[in-house]
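Input.
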Amino acid sequence: MFAKAPIPGRVKTRLAEELGAVGAAEVYRQIGRQVVTRLSGGAYRMVIYFDPPGSEPEIEAWLGDLEHEHLQQPPGDLGSRLTQGFRWGFAEGRSVCVVGTDIPGLDRQPVEEAFATLSRPGGPDLVVGPALDGGYYLLGLRRPAPELFRDIPWSTEGVLDATMAQARRLGLTVHSLSALGDVDRREDLPKEFRSRLQ
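Output.
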């Protein structure tokens, strides 16, 4: 699970343009906590893959009472960090999924579906959960594919399309999950969060 320490000015920078850095960090703190709580206790090993370096005290204060492991992200762009995260995961298990912490609608169902699909004999190489902003909220692999993360326009609405094009070039078979929305703007917030900001 990719997670950033909820430090004002370091998370949800687009949302911060509308809510301010402190408000955006608090929204991220609440949504991330909700997502981690929902995903805890599943039939999979959950690891908080956190950033920035040295922020484990903040992560511990935020999520430390929930059951999971911590792993610090290495330096580099998102493609490099995904590559290293999958490499670590495949050294530990047979299939690996990454998810984000800013998806209010995310629960265990799509994660469990992804792992079940990847473990099915003759199943796909890649499972993707599309995000409504043109990225993805989940990506799962049954084997390492570091080339999948090369030449992707990170932090743009073209991430998913570029990733799927790369998957086709690599000959990877793909299973898509239902799309979910993440939070980049105030209007992306679920009603319960918007009401707290009135």
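The first helix runs from residue 13 to 39.
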